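Quick board copy: two proteins, each given as sequence then tokens.
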Amino acid sequence: MGVLRRSRAPRLLDRLQAAWCRSDEIFRLVPEDALLERPISLRQPFLFYLGHLPAFAWNKVCRGTLGMSGFVPSFDLLFERGIDPVDVEDYHPGTAPEWPPVADVLRYRDRIRQALEEAYLDAESRPEAERTVFEMVLEHELMHQETLLYMVQQLPRSRRASSAHSPSAPRLRGAAAPGLVSILRGTATLGAVRGTLPYGWDNEFEAHTVDVPAFVIDATPVRNGEYLAFVEAGGYRRRDLWSEEAWIWREARGIDHPSFWSRADGHWRCRALFHDLPLNDVLDWPAYVTWVEAQAFLAWRSYPGKSIHAGSRGAWRLPTEAEFHRAAYGSAQNGRAAGVQPWGDAAATPRYGNFGFSEWGPTPVGAYPAGASGWGVQDLVGNGWEWTGTPFAPFPGFVPHPAYPEYSRDFFDGRHYVMLGASWATDVALIRRSFRNWFQAHYPYAFAKFRGVSPG
């Protein structure tokens, strides 16, 4: 057993060091004179996250688990936790912090990384409760890489640095034809059995089985071209397609198209990380929208030429969390057994989907047929997180993580909705069937796609 632990320990350290390399790469996309900018007003400036990643690691591993004394205790507190207001108007920080010089934050980061490298050398030989904290810190770093890219993408083009990962031309072809897939009645297993994962967040437990009635689901996510038809048909001006709260939000901000789109000289354009492209060139990319925009589109699809009374919803809606799992992981009509991924038990590689930073941007929907589920549903993992209609809530048997009790618990508020799958900016370590993401219904910056379901 000792030999096994020694052989495994460098793997966790190597993974952490690789995560740092990618984080540094992402921060290099932001010029130093832009680190205090807040391209997403609902988030702190970039400089906060430059300090937050090491501060979180220090507070959880070095100080919290190992009992070490801090290098800069004031930084441990300043960078401890971010914000998640419902809207800009709900964020009242009082006096804005006086952010320290970038050089001081970098020195703080580097001292913590050195301490972590020493701590992680024997991570696998520690008691299980301590090992899970080491894994948690690694996954926290990976998750923030994606949220940082939400912010980078919102910077003006002139404020974004170039990158070796910027493709000379985005992938614009290879989409699958739209279609529908019938899913038979059956069961879905949500969550994981405690003790069966190298690491799992508290909201992933406990595993439980749910009966799922038959339903029909889009074979591919809704693409930009389909969503454009909704926009051009006046979907953003039809009060009957939106809930009362969503309509107030839309009206107050004058929203009439997805945040990833812009219009100039009579032409639509789509914003990606390294390119602003004519929308006509990326009509087969998934439409990245908010939860409320997805709901309005599906109401329109149900009644494209008719008025429906406020609050009513037609035949099409977002899938529930259980329906997504049934379509992704359920045993299919073709006899293929359920696997740990929609495509089976093979590891998550670029053959199966657009995830793990293999593309650094969206690709046409259905461009990875090998990643289809046993039912033939495509892009369930990769190319964008998928909205569900299920509010984020604890599973039966939920127990807050003792080292990070607020991680999930603070968001069981009825305002956040479960997202499943992965985006192009999701590390493969997070691609597991029990992993749950979540965002507020109005949050417009996530790499979030959607598809519809209707009764079977």
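And the next:
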Amino acid sequence: MFCEQTPDRKQLIFTALDPLKGRGRELARFDVDPTADYDWDLSPDASFIDIRKNSEPRLSMLSLTDQEPREFIVKGWSTLINLDWAADGKGLFTSGLVERGSVLLYVDLQGNAHPLWEQRGSLATWAIPSPDGRHLALSGWTTNTNFWMLENF
């Protein structure tokens, strides 16, 4: 599956992708704010697409199996970045921003956030689970900056 925005940027279009035949049928559409960016991820069983407007705590779950769409707010967090399903499909990994950096969170499907790892000075953290759910690939994003002062230049 892949995602692209309509030319007016008002919808995300999710389309099946066949590795041999290319573009397949349209799977779903989701209305969006044309001025914003979004993260999304397909659930491990391919039944839901989780979508989040960047930097917001509201998660939308769009069903690909004719179930009702769902929404929930990640409790206790106002700014989130990144989005990856847990291997068992019972939660998601995301990154919450704090004053001193970012915190990797596991969020269950009721919106309860469980901090897993804080990286000081980080702009974002990621976690991508292995297919068996026994391992996580972790990433943290930081920047280093040097300032120089020149006199009599």
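Board note added afterward: The radius of gyration is 18 Å.
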